């Protein structure tokens, strides 16, 4: 009995205070997209009107629906005890931002807010870059035509490195944002500027590539080759110019570096030249010995006289010159003074003997040296 009474009282109260709801509240959508709202009333009534910024858009009266334009539509979710309609606003315009009102018979009204966001453009000015490793380079991101003020961030190789704040100018509700990023070039990177407003599931992205180049500069030892007295100290200065990044500089003395093919080739060439000269000189000696036997005493006298008047330097300087495998020619000041036709040798002269011995010993030394280098 008591339970029945309580149910009756509740029914009376419920009927007196109707349940009116407009969902969702505070809707934000992107310009051009659609916005949806549900309006419901318990208990159900026969009439409902939708308004946008106080202007009628949809009206349902006793089963008949009238709409103010093609951008508006309703769906019926009503049941026996509840009136529920869903309003869809398609292709949302800037002017749609504001109040959405649901109005029932008897002027019961509920209000929700619609805000319209705008997706603008984003660009990194200057495009792709190529910079020297270690150099600083500045990127500028420009986001135009966003609403509300967008979140702008930078990412390098997928890692967010900077979030830009307070970098916008606005024209009414529309914002232009500019943000710079300074990067020290280390590795080839993709640099991205990401711009987003809350209604976007993924940001608008601009990507540029940063190519890092290395510079191979020059290297020189100042002062060049040295000749110093044994035991003396000598200082070398290495100068490496135009390298990037900072190069590793190291010194080596008789180190493995110079033992390359160049040295081997040089040695081979010098060895061949020495061998040729050796053979040539012995050929000349042999030829002279044979010729001398045939020549008259007079001729010999003349030749001897000439030899004494001409400097012996011809053969000795040649011997010195060919003795080492360094064929510089700068140890031979007399060389160019001797005419070629005067090349004549007295086999009995002690100088000739000495020269031959010198050539042989130098050649043996050279052979040894070659062994050492090759091993
Ligand atoms: C409105 O209500 C219906 C049924 O309850 C639901 O399917 C729909 O998603 C709702 N729409 C909005 C915008 O909440
Ligand atoms: C909405 O649906 C309810 C229940 O199905 C129905 O009684 C009512 O007439 C419908 N209203 C409109 C406008 O179609
Ligand atoms: C930047 O480089 C990428 C890849 O190397 C290329 O696809 C893109 O077109 C370049 N952008 C510009 C503006 O040159
Ligand atoms: C942005 O600027 C506003 C006023 O112009 C200031 O109140 C706010 O603290 C600034 N925010 C940041 C993160 O600098
Ligand atoms: C934003 O940028 C656009 C395009 O560059 C320009 O037309 C507009 O005047 C700018 N607005 C403001 C507030 O600077
Ligand atoms: C923008 O950044 C602020 C602070 O970093 C964050 O609270 C907010 O959710 C961000 N908004 C969007 C749309 O990402
Ligand atoms: C960077 O990219 C350039 C081509 O864009 C390439 O030549 C270079 O080798 C790359 N550098 C590194 C360190 O990968
Ligand atoms: C130093 O001497 C070597 C061998 O004689 C020669 O190849 C090189 O060019 C010389 N270097 C300089 C800087 O004179
Ligand atoms: C330079 O030397 C350092 C230390 O010896 C070494 O860690 C580094 O890898 C070297 N860099 C190059 C490019 O050789």
Low-confidence stretches: 6-15, 311-343
How much of the sequence lies in strands comes to 35-45%
Largest sheet strand order: 2-10-9-4-5-6
The largest β sheet comes out as: 6 strands, mixed
Which ions and ligands are bound to the chains? 2-acetamido-2-deoxy-beta-D-glucopyranose
Shape: rod-shaped
In total, the number of strands is 21
Given helix and strand content, the structural type is alpha+beta
Distance between the termini: 121 Å
Helix content: 25-40%
Region (Disordered): 316-339
Pfam family, one: C2-set_3
Organism: Triplophysa tibetana
Main location: membrane
3D structure, described in words:
By secondary structure, this protein is α+β, with helices and mostly antiparallel strands. It folds into three domains: 19-117, Immunoglobulins (Immunoglobulin-like), CATH 2.60.40.10; 121-213, Immunoglobulin-like; 261-374, no CATH class. The protein has five helices and 21 strands. The strands form five sheets. It has a six-stranded mixed beta sheet with strand order 2-10-9-4-5-6, with no helix packed on it. Strands 12-19-18-14-15 form a five-stranded mixed beta sheet, with no helix packed on it. Helix 2 runs antiparallel to helix 5 (350-374) and helix 4 (313-323) packs parallel to helix 5 (350-374). It starts with a helix and ends with a helix. 15% of the residues are buried. Mean pLDDT is 79; it is low at 6-15 and 311-343. Residues 23, 36-38, 77, 86 line the site of one 2-acetamido-2-deoxy-beta-D-glucopyranose (NAG).
């Amino acid at each position: 009995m008591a339970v029945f009474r309580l149910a009756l009282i509740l029914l009376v109260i419920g009927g007196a205070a109707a349940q009116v709801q407009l969902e969702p509240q505070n809707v934000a959508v992107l310009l051009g997209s659609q916005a949806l709202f549900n309006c419901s009333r318990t208990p159900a009534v026969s009439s409902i009107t939708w308004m946008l910024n106080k202007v009628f858009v949809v009206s349902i009266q006793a089963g008949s629906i009238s709409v103010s334009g093609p951008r508006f539509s309703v769906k019926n979710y009503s049941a026996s005890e509840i009136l529920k309609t869903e309003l869809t606003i398609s292709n949302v315009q800037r002017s749609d931002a504001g109040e959405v009102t649901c109005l029932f018979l008897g002027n019961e009204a509920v209000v929700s807010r619609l805000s319209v966001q705008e997706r603008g453009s984003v660009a990194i000015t200057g495009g792709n870059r190529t910079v020297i490793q270690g150099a600083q380079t500045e990127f500028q991101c420009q986001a135009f035509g966003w609403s509300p003020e967008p979140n702008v961030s930078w990412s390098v190789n997928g890692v967010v490195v900077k979030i830009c704040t307070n970098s916008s100018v606005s024209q009414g509700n529309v914002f232009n944002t500019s943000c710079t990023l300074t990067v020290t070039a280390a590795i080839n990177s993709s640099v991205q500027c990401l711009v987003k407003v809350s209604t976007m599931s993924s940001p608008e992205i601009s990507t540029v590539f940063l190519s890092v180049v290395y510079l191979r500069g020059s290297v020189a030892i100042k002062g060049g080759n040295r000749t110093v007295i044994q035991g003396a100290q000598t200082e070398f200065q290495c100068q490496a110019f135009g390298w990037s990044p900072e190069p590793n500089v190291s010194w080596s003395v008789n180190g493995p570096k110079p033992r390359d093919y160049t040295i081997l080739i040089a040695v081979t060439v010098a060895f061949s030249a020495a061998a040729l000269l050796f053979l040539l000189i012995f050929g000349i000696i042999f030829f002279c010995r044979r010729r001398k036997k045939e020549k008259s005493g007079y001729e010999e006298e003349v030749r001897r006289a000439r030899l004494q008047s001409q400097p012996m330097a011809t053969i000795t300087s040649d011997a010195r010159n060919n003795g080492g495998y360094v064929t510089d020619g700068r140890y031979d000041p007399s060389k160019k003074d001797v005419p070629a036709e005067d090349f004549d040798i007295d086999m009995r002269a002690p100088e000739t003997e000495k020269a031959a011995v010198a050539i042989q010993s130098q050649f043996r030394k050279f052979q040894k040296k070659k062994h050492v280098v090759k091993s």
